Amino acid sequence: MTIYKKQHRDLAATSAATATESAARTSAGLDDLFSASARTATVQRVTGETDITLSLSLDGHGACDITTGVPFFDHMLNAFARHGLFDLKVEALGDTEVDAHHTVEDTGIVLGQAFAQALGDKQRIKRFADVAIPMDETLVMAAVDISGRGQAYCDLPLPTPRVGDFDTELAVEFFYAFARDAGVTLHVRELAGENAHHIIEAAFKAVGRAMRFACEQDARVRGVPSTKGSL
Fold first, then answer.
1. What percent of the chain has pLDDT over 90?
2. How is the chain split into domains, by residue range?
3. Which value, to the nearest 10 degrees, does the dihedral of the CA atoms of residues 158, 161, 166, 171 take?
4. Reduced to 3 DSSP states, what percent helix, strand and coil does the chain have, rounded to the nearest 5?
5. pLDDT tens digits, 190-213
6. Which one is the CATH code of 40-215: 3.30.930.10, 3.30.230.40, 1.10.510.10, 3.40.50.720?
7. Digit-coded pLDDT (tens) for 105-155
8. DSSP alpha helices (H): ranges in 89-223?
9. Rounded CA gap, 170 and 184, in Å?
């Protein structure tokens, strides 16, 4: 058995060691990673149709607390956050007595705004990511560019108009709203699929995971990953 003994160092030696460590970190380009503040955001949006409060941490563990009044949508947001490893809390009150459209679309708006705020100056992010998620007979691909240009292109043919009480076309409306307000270019494409539940869930998982990889920071990146110098 090896016994390690703590070596006593005087103040001068400790200061020299700290300076050496700091210099090494600077040389490796890691200062920004060590000093970066938490990438989080809290957004509230109130309209005549919805009242939504949302908190997001990009560097979380997939912890979720989601209540929108639309159970299937809650399930999809949980899938998005858990597979993206985002900590996400959503409290949404909407005019669901009319239908779920406003609640789903407005939650997409607020989630997009939260991502835009949490990303801040976008220093050191990987920016691009693509993922293909299988779910039984279904295969859905999502590709994302944190470009500053909010746009979504979705090709998700769905075999049924509803899953339970959920209007399936609202999935695409969510992605449109999210991409626009997050300032990301998003492509979501169904490569195979027969079950509407599987298709939508695979899409949310794919977008969540693609966003996770695109938002991650890379110590090799200097500044913003753009030839223009801004995103």
1. 76
2. 40-215
3. 40
4. 40, 25, 35
5. 999 999 999 999 999 999 999 999
6. 3.30.230.40
7. 999 999 999 999 999 989 899 999 999 999 999 999 999 999 999 999 999
8. 101-119, 170-182, 196-215
9. 19
Q: Which residues contact 81 (CB under 8 A, 6 or more apart)?
A: 62, 63, 64, 66, 87, 88, 208
Distance of CA 68 to CAs 20, 63, 115, 200, 204, Å?
A: 51, 16, 19, 17, 16
Sole residue written with tokens 């997050």: 182
Tell which residue, 83, 81, 224, has the closest CA to residue 148: 224
Collapsing DSSP to helix, strand or coil, 186 comes out as: strand
- Taking all residues of the chain, what is their mean pLDDT, rounded to a whole number? 87
Question: Residue 181 has what DSSP assignment?
Answer: H
What does the alpha-carbon distance between residue 124 and residue 57 come to, in Å, rounded to a whole number? 17
pTM across the whole model: 0.82
For residue 10, the model assigns a pLDDT of 53
Beta bridge partners of 131: 142
Residue 15 pLDDT more than 90?
no
Helix (H/G/I), strand (E/B), else coil: 134: strand
